Amino acid sequence: xxxxxxxxxxxxxxxxxxxxxxxxxxxxxxxxxxxxxxxxxxxxxxxxxxxxxxxxxxxxxxxxxxxxxxxxxxxxxxxx
Length: 80
Hints:
Elements: E1 9-10, E2 18-21, E3 23-24, E4 33-34, E5 40-43, E6 53-54, H1 58-64
Antiparallel strand pairs: 1-6, 2-5, 3-4
């Protein structure tokens, strides 16, 4: 919330030219948008379907995604 945390993000197109991006997820929820106020530089070559690795979100994300919000099934969690 409030864009206080800038998570490290890796993409399959790292190394390409960067540009400011707003990240939005599939739930149609106002908190499913990141970096709307302060865009995040990501490769402008990203395409629909490319997967992003958002590092360092930790247990908070596993807990938040376990509730089947808006009809989406809970995300599979991997512990390393």
